[in-house]
Amino acid sequence: MRIEAVQGDITSQDVDAIVNAANSSLMGGGGVDGAIHRAAGPGLLEECMELRRTELPDGLPVGQSVPTAGHDLPARWVIHTVGPNRHRGETDPALLAACFTSALDVADAVSARTVAFPAISAGVYGWDPAEVARVAVDAVRGWSGDVELVRFVLFGEDVLRAFTFALDDAA
Ligand code: APR
Question: Could you tell me the pTM of the whole model?
Fold first, then answer.
């Protein structure tokens, strides 16, 4: 599996699946969540509401992942996951690692071979980008399955540096 880190907007990535840093309600939000819903169009929220009416009446738990279609996005799938929120005392790195591994498990289940991740929890949820990068790279490196490319798509220069360092450091 190839792993790379680039600076950019995850909504424009031409990959099979992009991962959304959602919240448990799946009803959208700011940051990546807001950008993905804006780019995907209203059909994404409708599909998320259907998930809440059926499979996920209590919402998506932290560390778990669920797929939806990509709707108006270039990506065929959106894999929603919920990162740990440091402001709520959710500081266990295993919870954050589970976001990456459960999203890759979902990618395998839908036969997505190329997957783009944002820096989950490194924004509103208050985690240090360097720690997110270390946890993310370790989790992805420790995962095995049929995904061929994992692309970390970072918005800020500082976060890109953190992931580039984590990739070099773990090489
Ligand atoms: N593409 C790639 N990365 C992005 C984009 C984008 N379009 N927009 C923001 N980011 C970056 C942020 O700069 C940050 O580094 O994604 C990282 C994650 O930030 P958040 O989106 O705030 O995600 P998170 O910290 O996991 O907080 C999730 O925020 O938007 C709400 O509904 C969401 O409640 C949930 C919470």
Answer: 0.98
